[in-house]
Specification:
It is a single chain. This protein is α/β, with parallel strands linked by helices. The strands form four sheets. Strands 2-3-4-5-6-7-8 form a seven-stranded mixed β-sheet. The chain has a five-stranded mixed β-sheet with strand order 9-10-11-12-13. A two-stranded antiparallel ribbon has the order 1-14. Helix 8 runs antiparallel to helix 9. The longest helix has 25 residues. Bound molecules: zinc ion (ZN) (2 copies). One zinc ion (ZN) binds next to helix 2.
């Protein structure tokens, strides 16, 4: 592939204002919900199926989001029922208001099984991650105790950002076709950012709902969870991207979960691939001089001091790069006298 020919191109120069919408393909509308974070918005999509609305992703559970939805439901969307609330993954900015919206109009919630159940476990047991077993994960990877504690305490935030997960949902699997009246969408799931994130492709309209898997300007967080400490989540993520580049029509309009819609999916995949390849190379280089812990790698991956609010994501991402390199045999792990795992790039063999 010639990357310059397929370089990603912004499809719409500016987003709709919060609470407004824009038609981006026939019967498909793009709107935005505000988020109180550095990433200050999430994209949501409203799909007209001829007789009802289908909502893709919801924003957080808070008063401002409810007001935005009330504005949309009472304005441009008024007069038609809502059939489905389609939720791409369990993160609060996407699932946050799913049950609230579903209860309003009797709509069903559509999700992958893993994303529903994972969201449910966080919602039902907000202290689940504050176990010594997970504390040990951070210690063994060299993270300072007080930083590890702040990460463990953050898991309790899920409940405060999300309405209760719906009592029931419609489960979809990779390869399914989701029928919205006259429209048919292909269900594609991918790992990395979330375990079974749902992406949707409408080949007739050449529209691809990419959720947080492929975006312009940012790469999604790809983190190892202490629940799956040796998982090669970066490998899963890159494999998913390569499959998308092969499957999705080169001219398709990509509608992501954050930032602007674009065309040129394969070109964007190539950019993300290069970004992670460079970071993997930096780590191998750094570990050639001396054995390093995962916490040591933060200074290589992030040039600036890391804010406490994002250290969980940064550290999870450092673990993901380590696990990929161990899987590839480019790093070897040894546990030091303090019980901390340290990595070297000399003499590494695949595990
Ligand atoms: Zn996400
Ligand atoms: Zn998101």
């Amino acid at each position: 592939m010639n990357d310059t020919e397929h370089a990603p191109q912004v499809a719409f120069a500016a987003p709709p204002a919060v609470g407004e919408w824009r038609e981006v393909a026939a019967g498909i509308f793009w709107s935005r919900i505000a988020l109180p974070f550095r990433l200050n918005h999430v994209n949501v999509y409203l799909i007209d199926d001829g007789s009802s609305w289908n909502i893709l992703d919801t924003g957080l559970c808070n008063k401002a989001t409810q007001e935005t939805w009330e504005h949309l439901l009472g304005g441009p969307m008024a007069g038609r029922p809502i059939s489905k609330i389609i939720v791409t993954h369990h993160h609060p900015d996407h699932v946050g208001l799913a049950s609230w919206l579903a209860d309003k109009g009797g709509a069903e919630v559509v999700m992958s099984g893993t994303e529903y159940l994972l969201g449910l476990t966080y919602w039902l047991d907000s202290d689940a991650m504050k176990a010594d077993h997970y504390r040990e994960f951070y210690r063994a990877r060299g993270l300072e105790r007080d930083i590890a504690e702040s990460i463990l305490n953050r898991s309790a935030r899920y409940q405060s950002l999300t309405s209760p997960l719906p009592f029931s949902f419609r489960r979809v699997l990779h390869g399914d076709q989701l029928r919205l009246n006259a429209r048919t969408l292909d269900v594609i799931t991918g790992g990395g950012h979330a375990p079974e994130q749902m992406l949707l492709y409408c080949s007739d309209a050449r529209v691809f709902f990419a959720a947080d898997q492929v975006m312009l300007g940012i790469t999604p967080n790809v983190s190892v969870s202490p629940r799956n400490p040796n998982g090669d989540v970066l490998g899963l993520f890159l494999a998913s991207l390569h499959a998308l580049a092969r499957t999705i029509d080169a001219g398709a309009l990509v509608l992501p979960g954050h930032h602007l819609p674009f065309t040129g999916l394969a070109g964007r995949v190539a950019e993300i691939d290069r970004h992670h390849a460079a970071r993997l190379g930096d780590i191998v280089h750094f570990c050639a001089d001396a054995p390093r812990s995962t916490a040591d790698l933060l200074q290589v991956l992030y040039r600036h001091p890391i804010d406490r609010a994002v250290v969980e994501l940064a550290f999870g991402e450092a673990c993901a790069h380590v696990n990929r390199l161990l899987e590839q045999g480019r790093l070897a792990a040894r546990v030091d006298g303090e019980g901390v795992e340290r990595y070297t790039s000399e003499g590494a063999v695949a595990r």
